[in-house]
Amino acid sequence: MKLKRYKRFFKEIWIKINFKKIFAEEITLQDLSTAASISSGTNKYRKIRNKIKGTENKLAKYLELQINEQEDFVIAKFLTEGTHTFDVQTVTFDNGSVDKKDENVYEIWLKIEQIFSYLKTNPKNEITTQDIKDALKVCPVRVHCNCYAFLYQGSQYRLDQLDASIYHCDIPATTWEKLRPDNLLCKHSYGVIRQINFYIPQITMSLKKYLGLTKK
Ligand SMILES: [Zn+2]
Q1: How far away, in angstroms, is 139 Cα from ligand 1 center?
Q2: 145 Cα to the center of ligand 1, angstroms
Q3: How far is the CA of 61 from the centre of ligand 1 (A)?
Q4: What pLDDT digit, counting tens, does each position of 145-182 carry?
Q5: In the chain, at which end, N or C, are there fewer CB atoms within 10 A of the end residue's CB?
Q6: What angle do CA 208, 211, 212 make, to 5 degrees?
Q7: 105 Cα to the center of ligand 1, angstroms
């Protein structure tokens, strides 16, 4: 069957069309915060993980806001702990001392594009706190997590297909595809995005400081 060769290609197209149905235009944080952006499998593990470690707003820490007004974007950065600690990272030295990396930490980046353009659209030519909060949710978003799942389970590839990945990726998921056929986000990025309302005031505050809108 010659068609077999193209099976995966068709599958990726199908996924693209399917997600395009959900995300008609540019993808925003509001879009991604729906359960549609994660496969049931990952959602299951996320729930198990939360049982052990608490929900993500207790886990992920908002780090900072990288601001580039000239290129019209901001990047909100978060830090989260991994699910497991791996023994492979335990190193025993010749003198018998043990250097154990006792936690895996992942960084999640949410890049919000066209945000300064959006903020300029206020008819009164001023920027309110609500404008910033709205902008964070309705401007185009690009996502990145530096965990292995994000790359190898196809999140980065699929997001890139939808112009929603910070970094370009042309490697579709292979091994994990059956298990995670429709993953758009890893559990870390999904965890942050799912609870984005918890973080929005913090991100808003960073931007207000930059714009000189905080009270002295
Ligand atoms: Zn991740």
Answers
A1: 22
A2: 5
A3: 14
A4: 998 888 888 888 888 888 899 999 887 766 555 555 56
A5: C
A6: 85
A7: 10
Which one, of 44, 45, 147, lies nearest residue 86 by Cα?
147
* Strand spans (E) along the chain: 61-68, 73-81, 90-92, 98-100, 105-113, 141-145
Owner of token pair 């999140």: 155
pLDDT tens, residue by residue, 89-139: 444 455 555 444 445 788 999 999 999 999 998 888 889 999 999 999 989
CA of 150 to the centre of ligand 1 (A): 5
Question: Over the stretch 73-83, which tens digit does the pLDDT of each residue have?
Answer: 999 999 987 55
Report how far residue 206's alpha carbon sits from residue 197's, in angstroms, rounded to the nearest whole number: 15
Q: Could you give the angle at which helices 196-211 and 129-138 cross, rounded to 10 degrees?
A: 120
Quickly tell me which residue has 């009270």 as its tokens: 215
Q: What six digits make up the tokens of 138?
A: 């309705």
180 alpha carbon – ligand 1 mean position (Å):
14
